[in-house]
Every structure is written in structure tokens, then in C-alpha cells.
Amino acid sequence: MNMKTVLILLGLALATIFALVCVLLTRERSPRTCQHLPPEQEDTEDGQSLVFADLSPEEMSQVVRYLQGHLGVPLVDASRAKPSDNCIASVDLQVPTKAEVLRFLDGGGARPAREALAVLYFGKQAEPNITEYVVGPLPLPVYHRDVTVHKYGGKLPYHRRPVTGKEYMDINALIQRELKKAPRFLAACCESDGTDLVILTTAPRGFKSGDRITWFVLFHNVAGTGYYVSPVGLEVLVDHGDLQVSRWQLRQIFYNGRYFGSTGDLEREFVAGALEVVRLKQPQADAVLGSMRPRRPPGSPGPLQFEPQGPRYSVRDNRITFQGWSIAFGMNPNSGPRFFDIRYRGERIVYELSLQEALALYGSNCPGGMSTRYLDGSFGIGRFAYELVRGLDCPYTATYVDRHYLVEADTPKTNQNSLCIFEHDSGVPLRRHFSDSQSFYYGGLRKNTLVIRTISTLINYDYIWDFMFHGSGAMEVRVHATGYISSSFFHGQGTDYGNRVGPHTLGTMHLHHMHYKVDLDVDGQLNSLETQDMEYEFVKDPWSSQNTIERPYLRRKRLEKEDEAAFPLNGPMPRYLSFVSPNPNKWEHPRSYRLQIISFAGKHLPTTSSMERSISWGRYQLAVTRRKEEEPTSTSIYNQNDPWTPTVTFADFIDNETITNEDLVAWVTVGFLHVPHAEDIPNTVTVGNGVGFFLRPYNYFNEDPSVDSSDSVYFSSEQDAGACGVNPLACLSSASACAPRLTPFHFGGFLNL
Fold it and tell me: Where is this region: Disordered (predicted)?
């Protein structure tokens, strides 16, 4: 190779290196558009939302230490307490009164004292009872006061307390001892000695106040699968009302359509050949009915949503801000998600938005199924909101927040990453128009929504709770049901109560009804309720008077009393129902927000039922009442185990008081009837199983507030739609270089079980 060739090659190499350096430098400069930008700071709230903040683990621990040192009675850790012991059942935030809070938030008043609500079970007293104390001020409490009588009008009977984990353990031990009395039957029916059978509770527990007698349904238990769809046909009735565990008894046995007085009677009938037995094989993990294990190897990844310049929302302590929205969030361990002081563009729209209860009511020809009316608040909708799976339960890049609770223990527990926040591109325009006449242009706006989500696993069912905030000033509340169906052993006329979904499995019909509280403050605290609907009037055409026109017109009505504003479940309801302010908008219409319910609820329990008053909120798809501090919730955790004398009766809230220019609360019921079918195996899908409601501005503004969005798109036929300066959508090609470096997947949700 001569010198000339070497020089030429060297020159080409230097040119190539120079070009690569230029490219790399350019790439270093271009990701400016990818730099994370802080969300717009919309106000200087300065920690005011902390007045609603859930208790910290440190505050919970301080309350426990205070109670242990100041009540003068021995307290046993609830995780090992017997019914005859005293224990701390739970500690949660005592939300200050609305008047106190508004004086602080709006009037420059003092910050309300931070307090806790402690629930104690006093089993070691002459008259066992449940007592509720307010403890404060936090973080270092120095006082406690008994609020039980003030809240409930009297003492709380001990039998109303929810069943603890320790109580379930003792019940299971009793059942296991009793099953040992029927070894030959168990070997024949279930290929079991009883130790591999699992029990599922029902509720309520009996037929009258004071009862604590529960049917338990037995299932084959196969690790890693949903046992709820593998019943063995055996159900047992346990009386666990006595304070002494040694006195608990198994009262009855049900098997395959027949009832027996004891497991000994069952065994004797079997040995005598007088019992028809359905012989079940021990299910195998790879072929069991409820297995969710993948049947195919992983395919190519699905779409991934990301934020090119980082989240456009902000999470600070218990407060979220997003494009004009401001929301204080929290979690009640019993009733679940709760939100306060929801504002849009600085104006409060909702003071409180909170889940109240979730009811699951079943039908069956087996005793356990036919008597089940779960009130999930008594089990713990918030407590059992476990860690969310990144990339499936919520987008991978969502913000995940821990929640803390103290229930049935003296030490707080943490459900890490159990609430997620993300901006969601719904894939449909919020609004758009393509003009093909007079002038040619396109204008539109993507429907990007802030979503706050948590998911509760309540025994077999998983409820996905969504709270969404739209760029149009609208709020959306939605719940989806998934998880496993509950089932009964298929026998007799089982298909009168559901569908057969397995060889011996009846998917039992049931309804899901959820109840919400919405304390609206639309342009101030004082609101009225207005309905609008359509009618037709028949008129002669005014230009000739020769023809008749069926002209729709708007019928408006102000509802004056609570009784007028109580709309029966599944009954007719005005298509437009608005909470109106005394103040008009620019066009002289009252500023208002419209409530729009999306629901497919089943039938409410007949009012003749002895337990109906405990769920009387379910009578109404909507009831609007005057807000009262002494009516903070529509139900109680104590209603589950004594529905015959309910601690809180919602129907009593409706007493025909005036609702004109008052502080109003909307109580909303949504739900659906579920008749399980083959496609509910292995478990229920969310498609079609979502219900909820909207709160939409109705003449609240002078125009759609989303016109101010920086995401708006507009270009005409005279512009270059491919120019980034004209059309922000044309800038998205460069945003693809901003794909985030995802954090490694981690899941610790099993650590706290």
C-alpha cells in the first residue's frame, strides 16, 4: 500500500470520526425536549391539605402507647386476643368537623387539632362492649374521650364486633377437630383427611340480634389457585358467640342437600350406606378449575405509555395537583378510598368524596350461599388494598404511594405501593371537529385524564376503585369487579340460582352494590337541587297553522324536600339532575354541577326483610340530604354482625327536611347483577363489569374550560400540519427518543400477609 493510499484512508477515517462526534453531540443536545419539567405550580397551598392526612405509623404507635398507659385496664394485642380479652381493634384518623376545617382553609382560622379515632373491644368486663375513643392531640396525645354514646345513642353491644383473624383461626381449629370424627366419609367424598380443606366464611351470623352463628363452606385447597371454585359439598354451622372459645360448638352439617346434627352423625350415615356421596378426586395444580397460570409462553410486549418530560401532575404529601385540579386523598381501613377539598381552578367543587360500602348478596340452594350478604366495609376495604402490580394494575411509570393502617394489632402495617396515580391517554378525543364546509380546518384535544386508583381484594373478589379528573372540569368515579366468583356445590335444582361452571361447581347468582358519599359545595356551601327532562308538546306550525309539530321542550323543577330527592333503585329518574348555586354564570343560568349515574343494579332486598334496614341505603340510586355532622357515614362496620338492629340506619337520614339553599350531600348507589357463567372461569373479567357516576359542569363555566389547555390542536388547510410550530402532534416524533429507562420490576405484596 503506497503513501497516497494511506493518506486517503486516514483522511476518510478522520472525516468519519468527525461526523460521528457531530452526531453524538447533536444527540446530546436534542434530548433537551426530554428533560423532566416540574409540573406547573398552581397555588401555594402550604400544607393545608394535611388536615385530612391519614395517620402516620408514628402517630398510630403513639396512640397505642397512650391507650396502654391511660385506660387502667390490661390490653392484649388484638392479633392474639381471645373474645374474653380487652384489645385495641383499630386506630384511624378522626376527621375534624367541616366547620372547623373551612374556618381553617377559607377563613384564616386555627388549624384543627389532629386527633385519632380508636376502637376498642372490651371483652374482659362485667358488660362486654365496643367503645370508641377520640385521642389527641397528635403527635403526642394527652387526652381521650369516649364518643360512643354521642355517636350511636348508646353503648355498642359486644356481639356486633367484626370477627378478628384470631377468631377465624380458633374456628378453623374447631372445624378441624370435628372433621376428624368423620375420617371414612372424608376419604370417600374428598380423598382428604380434612387438613387440606379450607373454609370460607359467610355473613351475617344468625337470624336475630345477639347471634354469632356462622355457616362455613369447605373447599379443596390447591396451592397457587383459587379454591373458591372447588367446593366439596360440605358446609358447617359454627356457634362462636360465647366468650370462652372452649364452649364453641359445631351446630349442624350440610352435605349434598342433607342436614346432620354432627360430624359423628354424618359418619354413621355414611358407614351405614344411607348417604349418597359424590366422590371427588383430589384436584391437581396443573388442571384445577381456578388456575390462573399462563398456558402460553410470553409474547411480544404490549403498548407502553410514558411521559416524555416526566409526570405533568404533582404529588406532595396527601395532595395531588394536575392541570387546575387539586385533590386531598386518603384511605379509611374499613370503607376504603376517601378524598377531600376537591378543587378545580381554585374553586372547591366537592368537600368530601368517599366510598361508604360494598354489598355482595348471594343466592343458592346451599345454606352458606343462600345466607350470604357480605358488607365488605366490616372486613376492610382499605385494609385489604394490597400492593399494585406495576405495569398491569397500573401503568409501569405511574406514581405509587404506600398506605398505612393499624387494625387487629398493636403495631402499624404498611401496604406499600397500594395506591397509584397516573395521567391516562384514553385514546379518544375529549372534543374535536373536522370542518369540510366554508373553511377547512381541524381542531381537537386529547382526553387525558388524571386517574387515582386502588384495588381491594375482599376474600374472592377484587374491586378496582378509580377516581378520575378530566380536563373539562368533570369528575368520574368508577368501580370494576374482577377476581373469583364464589360458588356452591352443584346439586338438585342448582341452576335456579346460577349456572354450572364445572363438574360439581355452581356459579351462584349475586349482586354487587356500592355506595358513595358526595358532599358537594358548588360555588359555595349552599346549593339546591334542580331536575331537567324532556317532554313533547303538540303545536300548530306558526308559519301556516296548517300542520302539527311535535316539539320537545325542557321541563325544569326545583326539588324542595328530601323525600322528593330520594330516587328508588331502578326507578325512573330525571335525565338531568344538578346541584345549583344561587349565583349565575355569564349567561344568567345558575352555576351548577350535574350528577350522571351509570349503573345496572340488581333488585334491592325486600323491605320486609329483618335485615333490610342495615343496608337501607340500597333502596335508593340517589338520595340527597342536608349535610349533618352526626350523619357522617351511611353505614357502620357493626351492621354486618347485627343487621337486625343496625348501628346506623341510612333510611333515617331522609326525614323530609328542606334542601333549598342548604349544604347538601348526594348519596349514590351503583351496582350490577352478576349471574356467573362459564367465562367466569378461571375468574371474572372487568369487561362489562364496570359502573359509576360522573360529576359534570353544567353552566358552571361560561364555556368549556378545556379551551385553555396547552394540549389543544388546531390547523387549517392553509397551514403546514407537519410543522412542529403549527401542530404539537408533529413534535411527537422527536418525543419517541424520550422513552424512559424503566426501573427494575419489584413486588413485595406478599410480605405483609
Answer: 290-310
Residue 534: HSE in the Cβ half-sphere, 13 Å Cα cutoff: 5
Q: Is 407 helix (H, G, I), strand (E, B) or coil?
A: strand
52: how many CB neighbours lie within 10 A of its CB? Answer: 20
- 3-state DSSP: the chain helix, strand, coil percent, rounded to 5? 20, 40, 40
> Cell numbers 306550525 correspond to what residue?
541
| Cα–Cα distance, 583 to 589 (Å, whole number) | 8
Stated length of the chain: 753
CA distance 549 to 535: 13
In contact, 339 and 327? CB cutoff 8 Å: yes
- Kindly name the residue from 351, 461, 463, 620 that is annotated as catalytic: 461
Who has greater pLDDT, 125 or 303?
125
Selecting among 85, 170, 376, 642, the annotated active-site residue is 376
Indicate the fold that domain 165-272 takes in CATH. Answer: Nuclear Transport Factor 2; Chain: A, (3.10.450)
- Phi and psi of 203, rounded to 5°? -170, 150
The verdict on whether 461 is a catalytic residue reads: yes
* CA neighbor of 56 nearest in space, from 398, 321, 338, 404: 404
Number of neighbouring beta carbons within 10 Å of residue 70: 13
**What are the residues whose beta carbons fall under 8 Å from the beta carbon of 103, sequence distance 6 or more?**
109, 110
Q: How far is CA 509 from the centre of its chain?
A: 22
Q: How many angstroms separate the CA atoms of 507 and 504, rounded? A: 10
Which residues are 434's β-sheet partners?
A: 442
For residues 447 and 441, give the distance between their C-alpha atoms in angstroms, rounded to a whole number.
Answer: 20
Contact 323, 434 (CB under 8 A): no
Q: Where in the chain do CATH 3.10.450.40 domains reside? A: 48-158, 165-272
Rounded Cα–Cα distance for residues 706 and 431 (Å)? 9
Q: Do 120 and 78 meet the contact criterion of CB atoms below 8 Å apart?
A: no
Q: What is the pLDDT of residues 392-411, one digit of tens each?
A: 999 999 999 999 999 999 99
Distance CA 458, CA 374 (A): 10
Rounded Cα distance between 383 and 404, Å, is 8
Domain 318-431+444-529+563-698 has CATH 2.70.98.20: yes
Q: Which residues touch 15 (CB under 8 Å, ≥6 apart)?
A: none
Catalytic site includes residue 376: yes
β-bridge mates for residue 513, sequence order = 359, 671
Average pLDDT over residues 242-256: 97
Q: Please, which pLDDT band fits residue 257 given cuts at 50, 70 and 90?
A: very high
Q: How far apart are CA 309 and CA 469, in angstroms?
A: 21
- Could you read off the pLDDT of 405-441 as tens digits, one per residue? 999 999 999 999 999 999 999 999 999 999 999 999 9
**CATH architecture of the domain with range 48-158:** Roll (3.10)
Rounded to whole angstroms, the Cα distance separating 163 from 6 reads: 88
Strand order in the sheet with 249-255: 197-201, 213-220, 231-239, 249-255, 258-260
Who's near 708: CB < 8 A, 6+ residues apart?
A: none
Strands (E), 599-689: 620-626, 664-674
- pLDDT for 629-643, tens place per residue? 999 999 999 999 999
Cell of 93: 384518623
pLDDT score at 45: 67
C-alpha cell at 451: 386517574
